[in-house]
């Protein structure tokens, strides 16, 4: 059957990515959206968009939208309903083409316990595991508690000893229930020094099944991938043959049709590999495979679902160069990667180096707590691994991005790390190597950025002047003090003082001289001490963001006369992110020690613990369970047992 109209049952960057291929094939694209997404780019880019009164998990309403728009097919993207067997079955029963494997394959692989049994029958190596939660002795420590359904690191806990197991099981069950509506978990051996290797497979209805090589996705935080690459730099040709053959055996056992990913864990010390799961959908990291093979996986999915054969064979498939992908998230690495929220004030990817930006946002987009906080996936393809990696790092540095805290600089630090460049990328990379969490400039670089900000502000003020507009900025008819701009950067106050010379140039308090060559609302071209540069500028309500060679630097513009500060009671702990209070573990009057868990927040389907920063007494609890909180809301007040002890622990 020919697909003429395609409904994408997803949002953000994956919806836009599917649209891109479908439109190139002459297919009309239908979006579905919720109120929270009504102004997002994917809604505007669709040929037609249907508002959902509920959410992206409402199977009936999505199928009704497909009927209303005459859609021939539904593509689920990834996440949401992409691995929901009952949804896939309902779509096909409506006579609508499902872009994905059969509901039977989805159902069997959606349960990790069942998937392991199928893998064993297909003679694919598996890790020792047990669905008997009292059987930890047969596995040993450390071990993993894992959700039987779903993925993405949700419902997963590393457990070092028997004493920590009950709490880990309880937390994993709650998180799994919240994320997948299935609280079942199981125990599995944990390999600390390992690599995450996955194989992309494709199958069609004509009996063809092949692989497109492997990807390595070992760089992870909270058990979620943030950097992926293809091919892996760690496996030999012999290992590659063994792993891809195992992936094909798994696909054959499922009579697999469409794109899928067979995931393995590779023991970095022994070289042994073990089956983890099959993702019966498109993966976030699929672009690195596309980059090295030249194959458009969405195009192949659409053709396979239309009844066509795969457009190439295993023998004529070639791989060229190396590709690396980074996932750009709205999150704070210094706060254990807690998601951050806010309006995107600036999002301007650089024109060079030449990389692929798959993004769901634009300037003016709002990042809330309703959805996964991934802003974009950024993909670089080069002749070799080093070239692809350094190009990706440079592209991230040159991205002008403001409005929310992100992991951008953490990604750059990881990509430029010597051990990453050497290919030492095991799953414990972040814990072992501590990449730099945020952009750190030296004093001279910060001072130069502050000078450029001061120049941009004075130019803006002069253009906006109502009176004496023709008189140069800073002109005086007597000996008066220099003009000043006060800025705040990372808690440090910076005062920039300058005077205007008769030729229109500027002299600053640090001895620098500067000239403005061109200035607009979004950029400024300056020459400071003989160094000429063009800087992108974005102004918020109280902040200003300037693009440097290392990344975007933010300053708070301090008022000339500071208003009284908003008072928060001494000893208050505040919400590190927007979320819901799941559980309060203490009561007023309790004595707590540093590191004790005080309460648990839930945001974006994951749990986050708020811990005591020092020993003290719980003086007051300011929130209640199930309460929805904004970022920065006071949670409770702790009076330190010893004032000096508080100071030592801060």
Task: Give an overview in words.
The protein is of the alpha+beta class. The chain has five domains: 5-99, Rossmann fold, CATH 3.40.50.20; 128-189, Dna Ligase, domain 1 (2-Layer Sandwich), CATH 3.30.1490.20; 321-438, ATP-grasp fold, B domain (D-amino Acid Aminotransferase, Chain A, domain 1, 2-Layer Sandwich), CATH 3.30.470.20; 443-557, Glycoprotein, Type 4 Pilin (2-Layer Sandwich), CATH 3.30.700; 572-649, OB fold (Dihydrolipoamide Acetyltransferase, E2P) (Beta Barrel), CATH 2.40.50.100. It is built from 16 helices and 39 strands. An eight-stranded antiparallel beta sheet has the order 14-13-10-11-12-15-22-20, with helices on both faces. An eight-stranded antiparallel beta barrel has the order 24-25-26-27-28-29-30-31. α11 (385-398) runs antiparallel to α12. The longest helix has 21 residues, at 443-463. The chain is globular and about 80 Å long. The N and C termini lie far apart (65 Å). Mean pLDDT is 91; it is low at 644-650.
Number of extended strands = 39
Structural class: alpha+beta
Give the radius of gyration: 27 Å
The first-level CATH class of the largest domain is given as Alpha Beta
| Envelope shape | globular
Overall CATH architecture of the largest domain? 2-Layer Sandwich
Q: Which regions have little confidence, pLDDT < 50, spanning 5+ residues?
A: 644-650
Helix percent reads 25-40%
* Rounded mean pLDDT score: 91
Provide the domain count: 5
In whole angstroms, the N-to-C terminal distance is 65 Å
**Beta-strand content bin:** 25-35%
